[in-house]
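Much of what follows relies on a compact textual record of a protein's fold. Each token is a code from a learned vocabulary of local backbone shapes. The record below shows the convention in full.
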Amino acid sequence: MKHSFLSFMVFVLFTGVAYGMDYEVTKKAGEYTVQVKIDRNPPAVGDNNLMIWLKNADGKDVKGAMMTVDYSIPSRRGKKAKKFSSHAQPHENNYHAILTIPTPGSWEVTIKITDKGKKVSTKFSLDVK
């Protein structure tokens, strides 16, 4: 009985830690490193705050870039594909965008970056609950 209670408490503790952390992904976009954090883990229907850190090849923060975040869900079971876009705004040493996701499912996210005449992009998937 004591062992079962202890096992249950360990499970609760680790589950709380896993769900309490931000969703994170790091990708390459040309010579840049793009680190993304979402304030919900897992991402959920509704507003999701996206923080984006952009680093150059030397690992230094890139400021003044323009970013667009496109997110879409393909058509499925008689439903039309959905496509949305958000502009990332500068915020301290990073960029901020809000993804307003209307339905659960597997969403594709593309971050398009323009910096000093260079255009690059990176993609990742979100499993929205």
Notes: The two ends are 35 Å apart (CA to CA). DSSP finds one helix and eight strands in the chain. Residues 32 and 58 are 9 Å apart (CA to CA).
